Predict the structure of Phosphoinositide phospholipase C.
Amino acid sequence: MNHSADVTHPSHKATISKLPHLNDKPLIFRGDADLQFLLVGGELVKIRSNSWKKNRFFKLQEDCKTFWHESQKVFKRNQTFSIDDIDSVRKGRQSEGLNKHTDPRVEEQCFSIIFKGRKKNLDLMAPSGGEAKQWVNGIEKIITNMSNLSRQQKSEHWIINCMRKADKNEDNQMTLKELKHFLRQINVEVDDTYAEEIFKNCDKSNSGALEGSEIKHFYDLLTHREEIDVIYEKYAETEGQMSTTDLLNFLLNEQREQVSRDYAEHLIEKYEVDGKAKQKKRLTIDGFLMYLHQEEGSILNPAHKHVYQDMNQPLNHYYISSSHNTYLMEDQLKGPSSTEAYIKALMKSCRCVELDCWDGANGEPVIYHGYTLTSKVVFRDVIKAIKDYAFRNIVHLQYPVILSLENHCSVDQQKLMAHHLISILGDALVTKPLGDTMPTNFPSPEDLKGKFLIKGKRLNKLDAAFNNNNTLEEDTVSEEDEAADCKENGQKAKSKKSKIKLAKPLSDIVIYCKSVHFNGFEHAKDNQAFYEMSSFKESKAFNLADTSGTAYIHHNMDKLSRIYPAGSRTDSSNYNPVPMWNVGCQIVALNFQTPSKEMHLNQGRFLPNGVSGYILKPEFLRSLSSQFDPNTLTKGPWLQRKTFHIMVISAQQLPKINKDKHKSIVDPLVRVEIYGVPADNASKETHYIDNNGFNPMWNERFEFNIQVPELAMVRFVVEDYDSTSQNDLIGHYCLPLTSVQSGYRHVPLLTKRGDVICSAGLFVHLMLIDAP
């Protein structure tokens, strides 16, 4: 069963009563040539290497959401993947595989399907450029239309697809056996007696199978949300409906929004689905539910979904989303290096990437993790990928990207590195200070829109850029701190004071991010220029944050600091970034390739401000008069004591964790975690609910005392309880406390890798008030 509502209009509520058949397709698919083309399908060449190129038949299945393709695997002749699994589609030879294994002459025939998570790209070649274009256009249309659906519509879409799968014989009817199968699919376990009771209640015709209006009745019983009824009935005081006044009372009293009557009327006009009610300027319960599922009813403040902060402050006044060992797809001992890793990081709003550069064969520098078995990727190819993808999303990803060079190359290959950077990045590369005079401070992200900055060693001071530069063509400089650590971990017996020869052309393009060794805060204050920055291994940084918090904060008011994981983290695990943000460190580099709680926090930190990769630090981390120390919390403007009240009410359509076990149902619990200054760190969790991932309800209240709300983050974690082993993660969501909306809110849920789980979510009530 699928919606007959036009999915191009997310504000229109799809209703199942309009759908007499389980096999109906959305109207958007009817008459669209590209989408009809996908439903017919066609033969494509699947490409894995120069020698592995196989013909395979691909087609879109009737649910308009699942792709089927043939396979030659003995035990898996037919394979499928969902539109939800696709991250993006790339036209042409835009993947590493197609670039390596196909001829430039077939550029127009090629395209790649890029999957979320670690699933390998699908590199394909169509018989003609026209057919390749139809495949790409068709897939992009489905992705766009799915993303335009409201969360409520996605929920309905998901339930209906489960219904279709349960209808084994495709007769548009549902027997008792199929109903039980369907309930297990949607993650709810009921005993046979209850299942029979539901079935009997809906089977008005006593035919032994549900069809038409009976399926609609069953759907209504299933999706009825008692908690929404309670809220609605409290405020619907006008003939059982919400008038404009009633809705305004709800917005002012429950949602704590300072809004006008006009805004309440606007919401009714936007979300009410009943024409007669809309004429009377009233909101029915269906319209109310629609509102709660839209961005106005989300936990994230809609104003923060766009760039809303001042982007004209100096660069060092911002947290900058940063990646460590960006080239790695997996671990740091034998995992693959890939341009794809850079693309994925950049598309996740990373604005500082790392390049570990070594001498390669044929005179071409390569990038890999030195002294290990990780594979190598050509430096030139990485720079091309960075150029192509750094600013591809011009709406969000427009602010500067820093290329952090860890340079192990010979002088000749360094010159080639400089040549590639200048020739490939072109005018986007900052090769001299902005303006005509020697700067005394960083330019702003706004000044540097669409620009690349190089972080690395420099042979001289920056003012040489304005003088007659008589620097030698090459000279020795002390090695990068991280490069020395790399050797140490590679068991190479070299001193940390080791030197490398630096080529002038590479030195000259290091402008605002010159790497220098850290010799203490006083030394830095007296001897370092604003553009001279240090990199800190996590252990050193954490020690400084613990023992000299205020000094570290003042250091970061004038300069940039980069933090990187210990070399001993060979599994590419991560450290907790929060203590580093608390002392104002800007470039807190994490292993983006490793899904972890730490990456969830990073994703949450950079969720607001348009997911731009830049977040303005609080005023007390920028003001020279500040004496803030996160560990002692003396009195100051940072101390704004609040009480954060949370009621975890319910969840909807949580995914099954063990999909291989047909009868496996989750036992969900919710944990709410606060991260910030040490005094604010806390965690509280609900009880678990047996065998219900579809619509579990907790109604549990928690209270958190917050000292420094501007640094606090809240993380929701939903887990599958297990009494004998560690709980499994079902989903999570993290955001800064300053971006949380009060009142009744829906919380989206993300996978471990940070992708949205389309139909799933939490329903909560939140209130942040001044502490007594």
In short: Residues 315-621 form a domain with the TIM Barrel fold (CATH 3.20.20.190).
